[in-house]
Amino acid sequence: MYLAPEELMDALLPAVWQTDDGVVHIDFGRNARVTLVTAQQAHARHRALAPGRKSPVLVLCSAVPKPDAQAKRFLSSPPVDRLTAAAAIVTRNFALRHIGNLYLKSTRLPYPCRLFATREAALRWLRMHLSIPETQPPPRQPSSPRGSA
């Protein structure tokens, strides 16, 4: 089977969507190689789904993503940090999770990031990072029973 260049590029790019709970999902499928282009494309889709607000991000992949040096810099950059409340990476392979956790300990990401064996565990952790919608007023401070003095 022959793929045209644009079809090949679409096949390598992650699928990105947002669920009703506000979590942005990025599915790399079997493509564990994360380049600057794939990272930028995922970020652009994230930005379109949740403009101007931080969202928890669930990364799905068959293997632990292997970002190249340029992608690593980009994923730690202020534009990505401005939209990322936390990131959870799901991979079922125990050895890959262990290697990935070692990598995360040596990498300074500006947002919390953890690896998980299941989507359910990752979503439980990510829900702790859901932000309060900006349209809600801040919680009221209880008034002092003594009044002001």
What labels would you give this structure?
149 residues, alpha/beta, 5-stranded mixed sheet, two-stranded parallel sheet, 6 helices, 21% strand, globular, disordered C terminus
What report would you give on this structure?
- The chain is of the alpha/beta class.
- 38% of the residues lie in helices and 21% in strands.
- The protein is built from six helices and seven strands.
- The strands form two sheets. A five-stranded mixed β-sheet has the order 1-2-4-6-7, sandwiched between helices. A two-stranded parallel ribbon has the order 3-5.
- The protein is globular.
Q: What is the strand content?
A: 15-25%
Biggest sheet layout: 5 strands, mixed
SSE order, as H and E? HEEEHEEHHEHEH
Q: What strand line-up does the widest sheet have? A: 1-2-4-6-7
Low-confidence stretches: 132-149
Strand segment tally: 7
| Mean pLDDT metric | 80
Termini separation (Å)? Answer: 80 Å
Helical proportion, percent range: 25-40%
Please state the structural category: alpha/beta
Number of helices: 6
Shape field: globular
Q: What would you report as the Rg, rounded to the nearest angstrom?
A: 18 Å
